Amino acid sequence: MATSAVGADSVSDTAPSQWEMSTTNPFNGQYYPTYTGNGYFAARVPAQGQGFSSANVPTSFQIQGFYTSQSDTNQWRVGGPAWTGLNVADSSGSFNDAFKSSCAFGAYCQLEDGLLSGGLSSGNDHGGYQGSGFVQGFGSGSAKATLTLSGVSEAGIYDLVVRYAAGDPGDGSSNARTVLVSAGDAQHRLTLEPIEDGSWDTWKIATIAVSVPATAISDGKVQLSIAGVGNGSDPQQDSRVNIDAAALVKAGAAPEATPSGSTPEEHRLSDYKQTLNMKTGAITTHARWTSVSGNVADVAYTVLPSRANDQLGLVNVTVTPIVWKHADEPLVVTDSLDTQAASNASFDRSSDAQAHRIALTTTLDGTGQRATYVSKLQGSGTLQQSGLDGDGAIEQTLSANVETGKSYSFTKFVGLATNQDTSENTVAQTTAAATAVAEQAASQGLDAAITASDAAWAALWQGDIEITGDDQLQSQVRASRFYLLASVGERAWSPSPAGLSSDSYAGHVFWDTETWMWPSIVAQDPSIAKAILQYRADRLSSTDGAAFNALNNYEWDAATKSYVKKSYGDGSALRFPWEGGLNGKEQTSSYFFGGHEIHITADVALAFWQYYEATGDVAWLKSTGYKVIAGAANFWVARSYKGTDGKYHIDDVTPPDEWSSNGETGRNDSAYTNVAASKTLAIATQAASIVGKNANAAWQERSGHFDIPQDTQRNITKEYANYDGTGIKQADAVMLSYPWQNEQSAERTANDLDYYSTKVNEDASPSMTDAIHSIVAAELGRSDEAMWYTQRSSTGFMRGPFNQFTEERGGGSAFTFLTGAGGFLQEFYYGYTGLRWGTNGITLNPILPGSLKTITIKGMHYQGSTFDIAITPQRTTVSVTAGNALNVTNRGTAAVGKPLTFATRTPSAHDGYGTLIGSISTPAGGDNGSGSYVYPTDSVFTKNSFDLNTFKVYKDGKNIRFVSQVDGQILNPWALEGMSLQLMHIYIRTDAHASTKPTKAVAGTNINTDGAWQYVAIANPRTQTGAIGSTGLFAADGTRIANASLSVREQKDIVLTIPASAFKNVDLSKAAFQIDMMSASESTEGVNNIRPVVSCDTAADAVKEWRFCGGLGSVTNTSPYDSDTTDPNVIKAILPKSVKASEVLKPKAGGAVLPFVTLEAAHQVQPTPTPDSSPSSGTAGNAASSGAGTGAANTTAKPSGNSQTRSKPSALAKTGLNLGSISAAVIAMLAAGISVFAISRMRKSQR
What we know:
Largest sheet: 9 strands, antiparallel
Shape: globular
Number of helices: 20
Helix content: 10-25%
């Protein structure tokens, strides 16, 4: 794989490397095909450069508004036919054939590489499969997969082996499954036993003897087929299985593995390169192809949906023969419109040989939505057409005699017309409209069509984000903007989470649009933003729109354990669907989310208001925007009530953190929902005054008077009324600051960020969570932390080689995940710029992270002004490039030729920690006690996550902060206070030169300090209140001196914040410290929640999975829970340079004695020694101490911001189950402290 390094040149720079992403090997297991689109229709382009493929990520050909249905509340978008097919072949085979995995006698053949029909498709959302995926959909009686197998030398009796998964199909069925198999002979019924535990990640083998007749063998090849018999309505006809691979082998033999074919050369290809040009939207693929017969040719493809005409698609192939063995052997080019990519449809085919045209019309079940593709083929050769009467592709071929050294170009001009484009929904009309598009483009020629499309893309790229200082980040930003633009246009459609890249989440429209994608569109493309909002505005009616939803809201009644219809408002209220489809009715398959996840109504209203702010379009507000905002406000009036406390409340909702309800329990007073409702009412009141309407008195009465739950001890916003600190799915309460701009203190905003950022599940949370955290960190002035979140929000979620977002770090349901792309882009539009829209100007509060040189946002739009924002470390310049003057609130006015320059915000001291008092550093490594301690085996104990290497003391106003940094990644799998696994003690000797008589440390440590200590600051994730051992500051006699707040930042900084008043008359710059890292446990496993280190020899595997071993004792059931207390339970301590951990941490009667380390009053902090990945007991823990009492910058080297992520997916990550069905188990596991990481997104529709 090779990806270009993209720099920061302007959009006028034509250097290809600035705008291209490429790969040179699609077979290396890291290839994810990309897509391109024009906002109306799109194509995912496989490794072969065109056509349909089920490999890796199956190709998809989405069309806006192409929804099928079973009812008006069960609509889902499906793909259309593959319109890009333009295969090249000689008499021995095709260019496409070179990309298939080997299928030979004696070895497994990957079924996804076969011919799939009858609704079969390739999947990869379960684990354990071979090759690029498996085949699903055999429950249809018409489902059939066919493979062509080579190397069969003679007729005979063979074994046909099938590798399959037969998990629980969702109804608890334990039926044996059945498929029909054949190897060129009669079909045989093959019984497939179900998987005992119902898992779809467990694969079994089934074998059946088949007779291969001589008549079935042609040139050593045999056709293998596997067909379905039914969907289980009859238990004897149940084919609900996934099939991974099949093999034909000698009787009794085991199949060999499929040959890897991991390089282009193994596929008879050389000089392979596939490139996405983000500037033009073109995907090009080039390779030198050697056919089976030995012909050699350079093949170069271009696929381009025109941006100038959103009904036009272009596919070109240029073939240059290098070696052509027989002059009379023709080159055959096949233009196809392939139904394999379509489903839930019927088809009409037509052709015109004289005009070199073929046409395929797709009519969807249920809705009657209709789309016609017409392909006109240009190129030399003799034409032949086929497929008019078949059920697969319709094709036309050109056969041309060729000469070596000459290039031959073939182009298909594809016109698309749907019933959106015609006055009547008929095959004749859509065919005529599509024909006109194709013919007009063909008459003007390929070059003209490409030039027009390039110009349209160039206009869009006047809006750009330029970054200097990080080429990879630049490429990721441009890729995200490209994919977003490829899925939106000026038609009134709203993007689904995967846009036009696939039909993920049924192509439904969620809050993803208005909250995550839309803000990144309105900033530079207000006309497209307006069209997206029109999708909502067109679906307000009381018969099938948002007004209907308000009057017909189904909510869970716990008393009757059933869904009950409730009506809100008098018909003027609007409730937007959690999942929107072709109409405006709720499309959520789970009533619970449709009826309870109602914050989306406020999210929609906010977007409508922000469009007015960004454009100042009063006429639009009067005609379109106000009725949406007012209807949303009326809904909140009807849905809220006044409590006895005088505040307004909203009960029984699902917050953005969908795990909080788990499809079973609505939450009262969701902070996000209540703030969003309150803000909507305020917006509606303001909008009414602008359009000359009388605001509803109830809006003003409620606005600003909703109950927002608080945790006064922690000074945080509670996610909902009874929130108890449990783990969360994604950003929720943190979003009060952005995008809702809730009136709250910076301290509250910071506390919310620090608290909830550690509650988010590492593997299951979508990327937008880190995006919000980045924006909020930037708002707080913590610029380097903001960049840390930026890196987390992108790299860990992107798949190569084309920088496409997945929904979760481990994959997830949606790809390409445009919600993630939209959130990522907002970090630049609204995070580092500090941009906030207003009615009379914009607000800017720019800040630049230290790792970047500049950020420049070009082509921004505000109320008739087009402007750029250029941020450097020292200053920010706003330049109006066209239109009206621009008011920047509290900064001044910029106009054409009169830029506005002001100081870039200075980052908060030490990223918000305060003024540095001093720091102590020690080399990385040595997180193994005296040298023998071994990390637990469970993957949550990530490498170096106990490797304490830096301790810093800060003064921040009224607080002291102790910040202990590890060299690895701290996870919080059980969503405890900041962390789950680590526990820290910081012993403080206020007189650094006092007695060195050994003094007992806190019980459970098994250590002493080498002198009396006056205080101990404890970071205990399990207990925040109570006696010594819990989190807090304690005196040596056990008295609690002060409470402390515990948080973890950037997954490496353990932060204890303690009131400065607790350290009466103590000069911490002159104190001595003894800092210990230990492992946290439940109270029944260790004294003061300190987990004992046990012997590896006596510990069972289950013990070693969760405990450090390498000590002396074994586990006991009573205190001290360890049969030998002579060995310290300290994993790593910061020690003086001259002291070896192997000496002071070795077992000792009465406990080891650990020395203190001082913060020297030096002005220059020494850098941390270069980390050594191999622990060394001889040198680990030696400290270099320094300080800067005057607040001098700490130059201690920081570990890379790139977090380590686990590559091993959890069992839950592989199941693909709807979380609603396993929520109770999830809660139970989390409560029990079981590691649960990747869980399917809760809103997933089951289709």
